[in-house]
């Protein structure tokens, strides 16, 4: 490669090369024109400045040395020894050798080492030795990419640490520990390969070093007193991490392969928790939590349950981590301590650059409401994704390049050099602890088999697999190295291997192969099947009044924007006059009472502090100073924190984050709000793969609340529908509540009911179709009395005369209010309107009770705004039919459409009024 295709490096100077070269020129003209520090450096080079020559060295050569060293730091990684096999061909490389710069060994020997690095003091006699060392550091089995870091303090720290302190020497004991760990990792995979032929396990072989790396992270975290470790990873190597990092007994793991009962082998000391859903999941998606003191201090090590969707677990893990880092009880706002938890995210080399969720998640890393003080990312880079090689799966040189945009340091490390892998982890953790920022390790290895163990990879990747097949496994390679250097004898090596195999064989022997546990019923736990009963959620008036007054009290000298001040002043009226409580007001009262009851509240969403529709005003700004004030953080009877953040413009990562937060802090009323409900489809996989199904799959519970603005108000196909049908289609087994509420008091009671069930076996997510125009419609606003007693009403029924009613109309949300308003204008005793406030679980008993009272009824009409193939109709029709007996059930709404609504506002009005008129015609 050398000699041809060489190019001058792009004009992006490293740390400060351009500046340095300029200073050198100035120094040559007038030494006192540069700082004392530079004078000292340059004086070690130059004495005969007038001639431009130093002891016979042309000053141009000095500049060439500077350029060379800068290139090695910036681009040395391109030729570094980081690939155990199948080295990529690189063209048009920057100049990286002394010959490339027309320098000679003798030229460099005449120059001081300090010119190359300030950190080689005492280690290099001259620039030649220093350049050689620099190349070893930057082009060895670890390659560093840090020159993109914008923060000078961080970049200088990295440079100093890398050049003075990045490679450790390992004691005999440490080496034996590493070899033992590798022997266990490989022994486990080989045993399963031999004994469970064809079973999918997504072997770790090729990136085995991941396990000792994780073990080292845990040890460092223990030394740093970090008690919680949250790990997210996909299928690859997961079983190995479960057994050797979370210490899941071999017996449990093997039982899963044998379809016998793994729980029989759950450690009796309670140190391992593996949650289990009633329908279950494949073994390489399951997680667990291990309590251990193996590394010194007591730690909880959690591996998040994971769906098949690659990388999607990343924000969930971040949310869990943040929850671990926060104190939310007994404080006005959460107190965050980054040292209380560490997130480790393990990625695939194809998936990391391919899946946008990673960019959304990295964008959270330095945001006030989301930061976790630095995640450790490890890419298990086996150079192939399923059958696709990297040249087809990314446009970048490395899988890690996308992390550069987030100012994250990156190291690539050869997975066959286990000591280098450990060194990388040490650097990463030092950086994280120093700066509370993310760090990426690209663990470059290979994949021993096909995508799974049944696949024949030579069919699709013949050149890669020619090399893989002849390549020794790491434990053999490292073992032989230790024997060759005299650290251990061959017998000692073999004994380590034998013990590793023996441990797993004896575990296998302990399992009764005939004891199958197959349960086709897969029954829900009692709490889930029982569902949520009605609970009294009213709040005494004096308590509400006090809370309201405190919510409307601002610090001395705090000046609100004039118009807003008037709006907020009106929030006194329900308590002083006979005023109404509107939507935003009702919601804040609910949150205020919830924190008084001891549940922390965390609310996030795009522009949620004010509210998309300027309805909330939970955070206020001083008109003159810009200072912020959050009244709910100043409530005297509050027992827990109130936290609210405007989120970044993401749906998938932020929903995942809030979900994870609530999995970990089940006591917290955790609320995510979509800007418009339809945007929630940007996080569809969070709904499908976690929120709706996690309890059944993994026994993972949350009480996450999702606020999705939804209603047909002429805003076009997107901002009309929150795609209610999706949530109803996924509703089963009491997995969540889906509501579309038309009374502010009912919304208050719904939120309070949700809080009531938090952290109980009846907790479940809540999806609320929230209003837009109804936010300011007095018809849905209630007086304070409706808040002081009562509970959430799944249906709202107007007064009616049993014998008069011929037509029962059932409708939900905004269209129900359209009908209600019309009936107020033109009362008709033959029509009874039922406002269906909770759609799932369907309040069938309540509906049935109404029907049974109506003796002369001829028809039940279900009215919706959405097209017939969308909204609630397909969900509700069979259920209404069953409740209706002989009474006809008819549909009133838009016809089937591929798009949710018409685009033109005038056409919308026409269609909407036709629906209302048709429904109200007897
Ligand atoms: C979101 C998503 N898309 C597609 C797949 C199917 N799939 C499973 S593994 C895989 C390849 C992953 O490659 P890589 O990220 O390099 O991880 P590896 O399996 O090589 O460890 C693909 C495409 C998936 N699981 N998730």
UniProtKB/TrEMBL annotation:
Which stretches make up the Transketolase-like pyrimidine-binding domain? 581-777
Gene Ontology molecular function, alphabetical: oxoglutarate dehydrogenase (succinyl-transferring) activity
UniProtKB keywords:
Glycolysis, Oxidoreductase, Thiamine pyrophosphate
Show the catalytic activity. N(6)-[(R)-lipoyl]-L-lysyl-[protein] + 2-oxoglutarate + H(+) = N(6)-[(R)-S(8)-succinyldihydrolipoyl]-L-lysyl-[protein] + CO2
SMART domains recorded: Transket_pyr (SM00861)
EC assignment? 1.2.4.2
Which InterPro entries is this protein grouped with?
2oxoglutarate_DH_E1, 2oxoglutarate_DH_E1_bac, DH_E1, KGD_C_sf, ODO-1/KGD_C, THDP-binding, Transketolase-like_Pyr-bd
Name the Pfam families for this protein.
E1_dh, OxoGdeHyase_C, Transket_pyr
Q: Broadest EC class?
A: oxidoreductase
Record note on quaternary structure: Homodimer. Part of the 2-oxoglutarate dehydrogenase (OGDH) complex composed of E1 (2-oxoglutarate dehydrogenase), E2 (dihydrolipoamide succinyltransferase) and E3 (dihydrolipoamide dehydrogenase); the complex contains multiple copies of the three enzymatic components (E1, E2 and E3).
Which named protein is this?
Answer: 2-oxoglutarate dehydrogenase E1 component
Q: What organism is the protein native to?
A: Macrococcus equipercicus
Gene designation per UniProt:
odhA
């Amino acid at each position: 490669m050398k000699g041809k295709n060489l190019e001058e490096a792009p004009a992006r100077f490293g740390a400060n090369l351009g500046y340095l070269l300029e200073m050198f020129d100035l120094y040559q003209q007038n030494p006192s024109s540069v700082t004392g520090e530079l004078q000292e450096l340059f004086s070690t080079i130059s004495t005969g400045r007038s001639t431009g020559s130093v002891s016979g060295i042309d000053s141009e050569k000095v500049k060439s040395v500077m350029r060379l060293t800068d290139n090695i730091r910036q681009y040395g990684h391109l030729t570094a020894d980081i690939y155990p096999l199948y080295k990529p061909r690189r063209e048009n490389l920057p100049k990286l050798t002394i010959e490339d710069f027309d320098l000679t060994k003798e030229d460099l020997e005449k120059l001081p080492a300090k010119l190359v690095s300030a950190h080689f003091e005492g280690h290099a006699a001259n620039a030649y030795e220093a350049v050689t060392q620099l190349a070893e550091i930057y082009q060895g089995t670890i390659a560093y990419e840090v020159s993109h870091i914008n923060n000078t303090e961080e970049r200088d720290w990295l440079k100093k640490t890398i050049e003075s302190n990045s490679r450790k020497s390992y004691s005999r004991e440490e080496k034996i520990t590493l070899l033992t760990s590798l022997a266990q990792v490989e022994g486990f995979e080989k045993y399963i390969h031999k004994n469970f032929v064809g079973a999918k396990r997504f072997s770790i072989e090729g990136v085995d070093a991941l396990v000792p790396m994780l073990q080292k992270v845990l040890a460092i975290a223990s030394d740093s007193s970090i008690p919680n470790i949250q790990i997210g990873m996909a299928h690859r190597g997961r079983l190995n991490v479960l057994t050797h990092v979370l210490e899941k007994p071999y017996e449990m793991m093997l039982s899963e392969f044998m379809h016998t009962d793994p729980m029989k082998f759950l450690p009796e000391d309670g140190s391992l928790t593996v949650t289990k859903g009633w329908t279950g999941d494949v073994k390489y998606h399951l997680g667990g939590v291990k309590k251990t003191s193996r590394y010194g201090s007591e730690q909880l090590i959690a591996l998040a349950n994971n769906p098949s969707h690659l990388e999607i677990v990343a924000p969930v893990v971040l949310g869990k981590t943040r929850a671990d880092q926060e104190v939310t009880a007994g404080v006005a706002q959460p107190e965050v301590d980054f040292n209380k938890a560490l997130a480790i995210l393990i990625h695939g080399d194809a998936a990391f650059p391919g899946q946008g969720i990673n960019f959304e998640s990295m964008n959270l890393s330095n945001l006030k409401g989301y930061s976790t003080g630095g995640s450790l990312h490890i890419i298990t880079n086996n150079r192939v994704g399923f059958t696709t090689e990297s040249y087809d799966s990314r446009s970048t040189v490395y899988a890690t390049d996308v992390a550069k945009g987030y100012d994250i340091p990156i190291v690539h490390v050869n997975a066959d050099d286990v000591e280098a892998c450990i060194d990388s982890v040490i650097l990463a953790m030092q950086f994280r602890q120093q700066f509370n920022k993310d760090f990426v390790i690209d663990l470059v290895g290979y994949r021993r088999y096909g995508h799974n163990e049944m696949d024949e990879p030579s069919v699709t990747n013949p050149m890669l697999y020619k090399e893989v097949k002849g390549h020794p496994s790491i434990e053999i390679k490292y073992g032989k190295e230790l024997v060759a250097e005299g650290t251990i004898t061959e017998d000692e090596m073999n004994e380590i291997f034998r013990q590793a195999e023996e441990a797993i064989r004896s575990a296998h022997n302990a399992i009764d192969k005939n004891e199958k546990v197959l349960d086709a019923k897969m029954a829900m736990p009692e709490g889930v099947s029982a569902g949520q009963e009605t609970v009294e959620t009213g709040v005494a008036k004096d308590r509400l009044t006090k809370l309201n007054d405190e919510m409307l009290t601002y610090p001395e000298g705090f000046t609100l924007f004039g118009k807003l001040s008037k709006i907020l002043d009106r929030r006194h009226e329900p308590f002083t006059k006979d005023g109404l409580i509107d939507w935003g007001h009702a919601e804040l009262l609910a949150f205020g009472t919830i924190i008084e009851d001891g549940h922390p509240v965390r609310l996030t969403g795009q522009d949620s502090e004010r509210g998309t529709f300027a309805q909330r005003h939970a955070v206020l700004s001083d008109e003159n100073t810009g200072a912020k004030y959050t009244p709910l953080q100043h409530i005297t009877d509050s027992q827990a924190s109130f936290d609210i953040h405007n989120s970044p413009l993401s749906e998938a990562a932020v929903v995942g984050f809030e979900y994870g937060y609530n999995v970990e802090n089940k006591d917290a009323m955790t609320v995510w709000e979509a800007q418009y409900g339809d945007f929630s489809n940007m996080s569809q996989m969070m709904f499908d793969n976690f929120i709706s199904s996690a309890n059944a799959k993994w026994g993972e519970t949350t009480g996450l609340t999702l606020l999705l603005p939804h209603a047909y108000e002429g805003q076009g196909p997107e901002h009309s529908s929150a795609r209610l049908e999706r949530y109803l289609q996924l509703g089963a087994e009491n997995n969540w509540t889906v509501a579309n509420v038309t009374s502010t008091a009912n919304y208050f009671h719904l939120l309070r009911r949700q809080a009531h069930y938090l952290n109980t076996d009846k907790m479940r997510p809540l999806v609320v179709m929230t209003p837009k125009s109804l936010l300011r419609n007095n018809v849905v606003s209630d007086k304070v009395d409706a808040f002081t007693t009562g509970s959430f009403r799944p249906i709202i029924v107007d007064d009616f005369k049993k014998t008069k009613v011929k037509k029962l109309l059932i409708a939900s949300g905004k269209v129900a209010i359209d009908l209600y308003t019309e009936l107020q204008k033109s009362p008709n005793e033959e029509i009874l309107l039922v406002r269906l406030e909770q759609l799932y679980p369907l309040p069938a008993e309540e509906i049935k009770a109404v029907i049974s009272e109506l003796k002369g009824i001829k028809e039940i009409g279900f009215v919706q705004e959405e097209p017939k193939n969308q909204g609630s109709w397909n969900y509700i029709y069979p259920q209404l039919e069953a409740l209706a007996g002989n009474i006809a059930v008819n549909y009133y709404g838009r016809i089937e459409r591929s798009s949710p609504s018409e685009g033109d506002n005038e056409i919308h009005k026409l269609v909407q009024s036709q629906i209302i008129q048709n429904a109200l015609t007897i």
